[in-house]
Every structure is written in structure tokens, then in C-alpha cells.
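Lab manual, section 2.4: Encoding a predicted structure.

Procedure: take the sequence of the chain (324 residues), apply the prediction step described in section 2.3, and record the output as C-alpha cells. A sample record is shown.
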Amino acid sequence: MKLAGIFFWIVGLLLMLWLIAWQGFAKVGIAFTEVGWGLPLICLYFLLPMTANTFCWRLLLPTNTRPPFYILLLFRWVCGSVNTLLPVAQVGGELVRARLLTFCGVRGPESGASAVVDVTIAATTQSVFSIIGILILLQYDILKDATYATAFGLLVFSILLVSFFIVQRLGLFYKITRFLEKSLKVGDWKNITGGAKELDEAILSTYGRRRALAFATAWRIFGLIVGSGQVMLVFYFLGYPITFVEAIMLESLGHAIRNMAFMIPGALGVQEGGFMLLGYVVGAGSEIGLVFSLIIRARSLVLGLPGLIVWQFIEGRKLLSNHQ
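Recorded output:
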């Protein structure tokens, strides 16, 4: 764990605790317990968008090298657990799932390319989804100034996203990865990617499969829409039912908040502040917005901690098999 990661984790944790204290620990605790038996149902529901995202990833792998779907779903679960609970700037899980794929006989370049293209699709669809959320938020007069500021931030994010896509298409990923190989000295980088040049060629080859790319994107969009149902479910159990349009707004802007606060592990504190504001906008109140964010964190812990254990178990088995 790097020093910067620890620093941002502490800052985020303190911000989150301050927000809870501001609302009142007792009040927040009472509101949280209102969910009750709904938390297991919320955790189970999250498997739906996770499954949709797994279908997206599966389509990006060559047909003859795809592991069984349940294996990919397991690796997707591990990936989400790493990104959510560890200070890895929300990208370390992608490296982990690419590595796990190689354990199933998938070539390094193909596994690395599938993760890179999948992340690009996710960022693209989430960016569009966030803009839709902004357009919905614009209908609320109460936050017009904040909305314009957020819209500007998303515009900048979208420009960076397009630039990232162009970089991949021009073959510059080779130079970037070669630099990382030399500077970061990651011991098994080549085992994961097969080398920078091979990874770059695999990425371009994946983009060349346009039909698979289109269907993969459709699954990602479906996952975002289904994920909005989780928002409705949480607010229902909290006693503040919201419309599907409001759920889309909250889900889309939640993704935007977490992406823009990627340096802080799990967007600690920032996510809470954002949902407090959005909870106020939809009429549930900032306290309910805060509790909503904490429930999402509880769901992440319930699903994420076992995911990290499964990851270590898989790595342990691989290590033992290498020494036999």
C-alpha cells in the first residue's frame, strides 16, 4: 500500500466520519437500521448488473479462449472487490482479473486487452449515463449553479475519455506500457500482458471485432439501467420511494462522483457528500442521502470482503501448483 493511498484513505475516512457526526451518529444509525432485512436483498440484487457487466467482458474475449461464464463472473466479483476495498485508484482490480484469466489458459495479451477495452467501454457508457443524469438534475432549480459546474467537469472528463480512446487506436499504448514496464518494475507485468507490443496489438484486434464490441456495449448500458433499480430498492426500504427517473439520476451521478474522486479509495467521504446533496434534491433530505451512501458501502463490504478472500485463495492455489 503506497503512502499516497494511505493518506487519501485517511482523509476520505475523516471526511466521511465528519459528515456522519454533522448529521448525528444516533439519527444516522436509526435510519440505517430501517433497512433491516432489506440489506441481503440489496446485495443479491447487485448480482444483476454484475452479471450484465460480465456478459460485456465475455464478448471481448476470443471465442476459442473464453472460460466458462461462472469463472468470468467470479473474476468480475474479485475485480470489483479489489477496486472497492483496496487503495488502487479503482483500476487495480482490472490488473487482477487480467492476471486471473491467464490462470485459465488465456494468453496474456488477450486477457490484458479484454480488461483495457472493457474499462474503456465502461468509462464511455458511464460518461454518457452521467450526462443524462446531469440533464435530469437541470430540471431542479434549486441546484442550477452546482449543476453547471458538474456538467463542466463531466465535459472535461469526456474529452479526456475520447483522448484515451484515440491513444489506443493510434497504437500509443505500446509506448506507455513500455515506460511502465521500465519505471514501475512490476515483476509479472509481461506474464499478464505478454509484453507491451503484443498487448497493443491485441487491443487493436479487439476493437476490430465491431459486432462483439457493439453487443458488449449494449450489455454495459443494460447493466447501468438495471443498477438504477438498486437505488429504487434502497430508497424503498428507507421509506422514501423515488421514481425510476430519479433513480437513474442518482445512479448516474453516483458513478460520476466515484470516477472523479478516483484518487481516494472508495471515494470515501466524497461519495457521502455527493449523495447528501442529491438526497436533498429529490426531497428525501441530506440525512437519507448519507444513509443511502452508507448502505451502498455496507453492500460493498458484504460482497467485497469474501471477494478478497476468494482472490487470495485462487492466488494461493496457483502458488502451490507452481511449486509442485
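Check your result against the sample. Residues 183-187 have pLDDT under 50 and may be disordered.
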